[in-house]
Design goal:
By secondary structure, this protein is of the alpha/beta class. The chain has eleven helices and eleven strands.
C-alpha cells in the first residue's frame, strides 16, 4: 500500500476537518501518499480528486464543516456509478480508502469493498451519535453544546414572558441530542424516539396538581419523535391547555456548524490517526471507534445493522429531575 484516498460523506459534522488532518499527517508520517476526494462518492464519480500534503491540512483543526466538501450521491447507488468511481480511483493509484461519515456512508464503503476489494476504513462522523461501535461520534459534543447554548437563551425569554417553549433539536432516528440537552438545560420534558411513554410524561407534568408553581417550561423534542416536531406539538398542547402561552423553536442546521469543541477535536484526531493504523495492520472493511476509551474495530456489516440506543438510566434521570 502506497497511496490512500480520504473523503467525507453525508451530513457534515464539527470535527471532520480535525479528523482529515489526522488522517493525512499520520499517513505521511508512515510514508504514504494521500489523495483527497471532494464531495464524497460524488467526487469519486466526477474524478474530483486532489493531492494532499501536510500544508493542505494546516490551520483547519479549529474549523467546522469539511474542507473536502460533502454530498450524497444517487449515482453511486448504481453498479454503473460504482464502476466509474473505481476506475477513477485506480487512475490515481489509490490503494485504500478512509471514509468519514454516517450509516449511509458506511453502506457505500461496504458495498465498494465487496465489489472491488478496495480496503475501506470507516470513521464515525455524525452529530446524532447513533452509530454502533463507538461511544461517541465526531461532532456530537459540539452539537449538544450548541443546542444547550440556544436553550439557555430561550430559557431567558421563557422566564421573562412566562411561556412554555418547545425546542426541536436534530435526531431523526435517535434521541441522544434531545435527552442530553434536556438534562443539561433543566428541561421539564424530553420527547425522543426511544421512549414510547414520553408524551404521557409531558402531559403528566402539566396535569400534576402537585407540580411546582412555575411560570414557564422547556420541552425538548427530537425531530424524529413519533409525536411530531415542535410545530405539531405546539398545536397539540395549545388545544389542550389554551390558558398556557406556548411557543416553538426549531434549532435546525445551526447544530451542525461552528468550531468543534476540544473533546471533538481530540476524538477526531484519535480516530483519524487510528484509521491509518488499521490499514497498516491489514484491516480492510471495518469502522474505527472508541469504547470505554479503547480503540475498537467493528465490521461494516455489524456497524450498519447494530443498534445503539440511549441509556435507560438517563431517561429515568430526566423524568426525576423534571418534577
Amino acid at each position: 500500500m502506497n497511496k490512500i484516498g480520504v473523503y467525507t460523506s453525508g451530513g457534515d459534522a464539527p470535527g471532520m476537518n480535525a479528523c482529515l488532518r489526522a488522517v493525512v499527517r499520520t499517513a505521511i508520517f508512515n510514508g504514504l501518499e494521500v489523495k483527497g476526494i471532494k464531495r464524497g462518492y460524488e467526487g469519486m464519480i466526477s474524478n474530483d480528486i486532489i493531492d494532499l500534503d501536510r500544508q493542505s491540512v494546516a490551520n483547519i483543526i479549529q474549523r467546522g464543516g469539511t474542507f473536502l466538501k460533502t454530498a450524497r450521491s444517487q449515482t453511486f447507488m448504481t453498479k454503473e456509478g460504482r464502476k466509474i468511481a473505481y476506475d477513477n480511483i485506480k487512475k490515481h493509484g489509490i490503494d485504500a480508502l478512509v471514509c468519514v461519515g454516517g450509516n449511509g456512508s458506511y453502506t457505500g464503503a461496504k458495498i465498494f469493498f465487496e465489489e472491488y476489494g478496495v480496503p475501506c476504513i470507516g470513521l464515525p462522523g455524525t452529530i446524532d451519535n447513533d452509530l454502533f461501535g463507538t461511544d461517541f461520534t465526531i461532532g456530537y459534543d459540539t452539537a449538544i453544546n450548541t443546542a444547550l447554548d440556544a436553550i439557555d437563551k430561550i430559557r431567558d425569554t421563557a422566564h421573562s414572558h412566562e411561556r412554555v417553549f418547545i425546542v426541536e433539536v436534530m435526531g431523526r432516528n435517535s434521541g441522544f441530542i434531545a435527552l442530553d440537552v434536556a438534562i443539561a438545560g433543566g428541561a421539564e420534558g424530553a420527547l425522543i424516539p426511544e421512549d414510547q411513554g414520553d408524551w404521557d410524561k409531558v402531559l403528566n407534568h402539566f396535569n400534576n396538581p402537585k407540580r411546582r408553581k412555575k411560570s414557564f417550561s422547556i420541552i425538548v423534542v427530537a425531530e424524529g419523535d413519533e409525536q411530531g416536531g415542535a410545530l405539531i406539538l405546539e398545536k397539540k398542547l395549545t388545544s389542550m391547555y389554551p390558558d398556557l402561552k406556548i411557543r416553538s423553536t426549531i434549532l435546525g442546521h445551526v447544530q451542525r456548524g461552528g468550531s468543534p469543541s476540544a473533546r471533538d477535536r481530540i476524538l477526531a484526531s484519535r480516530l483519524g490517526s487510528e484509521a491509518i493504523t488499521a490499514l497498516l495492520t491489514g484491516q480492510k472493511s471495518v469502522t474505527v471507534g472508541i469504547v470505554s476509551d479503547e480503540v475498537v474495530y467493528t465490521p461494516f456489516e455489524q456497524a450498519i445493522k447494530g443498534k445503539k440506543s440511549v441509556s435507560e438510566s438517563l431517561i429515568n434521570l430526566a423524568e426525576i429531575l423534571s418534577i
